[in-house]
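User: Just a sanity check before I run the rest of the batch. Below are the structure tokens for the first item. I only need the designed sequence back.
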């Protein structure tokens, strides 16, 4: 079986070239061809000797996930469904704005964590994505959007906010993010790569040690009783531990704060008391708030908070000195908004996982 070079970060590529008896700079050269020029075959790598190109063609491939569907929303948001084999599909979303272009990347086929308000959680879980499947989303999007290495950056920001819990696929997500940051890869700064987690505390610490990118934490509730219900992983890592992990992260964070995401669910977590409770919860944690109006999906059982309630909630946080933004809903007409990504998930392990998770909580 040929190896897929999209699976290797800089270190992995250097090892691969060492093993075939080539100098380390060849690895960097090939990395630029793959990730900056979007090369999918070795023949196009014109500054490599013919012999080396032939040898690479025999031992290696460059295989990204394949596009199965491509839709564009009225607001310009674009969503790709990518096939990852065995009738599984994942989704990637590009959100163009005046001053930046953000790509929202998936990390797993489905998600095992089952947050009550999330469409991905409803689909169940199949497997972790490989490095090639994670970074391949950026590779594809760059090609599809016509990015060139010397041209203006079309994708200026990446958010690990698509399907899946990125910290539950730690090693592959870290390798893929290393490629995003590498000067021979996509050259993005740590401030422009954001990982969103539902709060896997030990993995948050590992991320801080290994690759402290910008961190967003899905808070969604100001107390354990409500968070246990909305974000079940809270039973394992309750708020006190989560807040402590955030405090530990901040000194390493690229922008000195964490972002708390808070989905606005009508009549569930959006009362003024909840906002006041949040203020005391986050005391001592340098943070910003991002309120996300709930995005509906069939049979979710939740409604979006009305705009005046969201505004009142924001004002209470702002008056306490907490910078608070309300996330604009983008791409909801193609089910491309936060929490609406469903992809195609062959949920083979859901029952088993549910039982084992309940046992361990
Ligand atoms: N698994 C990670 C990242 C993916 S979800 C996490 O949970 O953080 C990205 C954000 O969208 C999270 O804050 C998530 O809680 C939120 N979200 C999930 N479902 C949503 C929905 N239906 N409407 C609005 N936001 C949602
Ligand atoms: Fe998984 Fe995040 Fe959805 Fe929760 S909100 S089910 S962690 S993808």
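Assistant: Here's the designed sequence for the first item:
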């Amino acid at each position: 079986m040929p190896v897929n070079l999209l699976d290797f970060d800089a270190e992995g590529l250097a090892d691969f070239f060492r093993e075939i008896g080539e100098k380390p700079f060849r690895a960097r050269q090939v990395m630029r061809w793959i990730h900056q020029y979007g090369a999918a075959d070795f023949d196009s790598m014109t500054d490599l000797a013919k012999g080396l190109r032939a040898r690479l063609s025999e031992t290696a491939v460059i295989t990204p996930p394949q596009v199965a569907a491509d839709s564009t929303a009225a607001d310009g948001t674009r969503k790709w469904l990518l096939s990852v084999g065995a009738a599984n599909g994942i989704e990637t979303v590009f959100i163009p704005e005046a001053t930046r272009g953000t790509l929202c990347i998936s990390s797993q086929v489905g998600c095992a964590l089952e947050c009550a308000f999330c469409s991905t959680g409803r689909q169940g879980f199949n497997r972790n994505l490989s490095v090639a499947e994670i970074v391949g989303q950026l590779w594809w999007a760059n090609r599809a959007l016509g990015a060139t290495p010397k041209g203006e950056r079309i994708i200026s920001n990446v958010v690990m906010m698509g399907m899946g819990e990125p910290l539950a696929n730690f090693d592959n997500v870290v390798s893929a993010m290393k490629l995003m940051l590498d000067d021979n890869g996509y050259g993005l700064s740590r401030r422009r790569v954001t990982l969103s987690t539902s709060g896997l505390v030990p993995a948050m610490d590992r991320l801080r040690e290994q690759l402290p990118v910008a961190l967003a934490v899905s808070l969604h509730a100001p107390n354990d009783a409500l968070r246990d219900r909305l974000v079940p992983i809270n039973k394992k890592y309750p708020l006190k531990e989560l807040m402590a992990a955030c405090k530990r992260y901040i000194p390493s964070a690229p922008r000195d704060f964490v972002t708390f995401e808070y989905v606005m669910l009508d009549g569930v977590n959006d009362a003024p008391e909840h906002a006041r409770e949040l203020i005391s919860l986050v005391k001592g944690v340098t943070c910003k708030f991002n309120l996300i109006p709930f995005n509906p999906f069939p049979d979710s059982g939740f409604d979006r908070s009305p705009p005046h309630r969201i505004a009142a909630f924001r004002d209470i946080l702002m008056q306490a000195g907490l910078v608070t933004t309300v996330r604009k809903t983008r791409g909801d007409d193609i089910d491309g908004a936060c929490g609406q990504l469903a992809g195609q998930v062959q949920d083979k392990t859901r029952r088993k996982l549910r039982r084992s998770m309940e046992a361990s909580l």
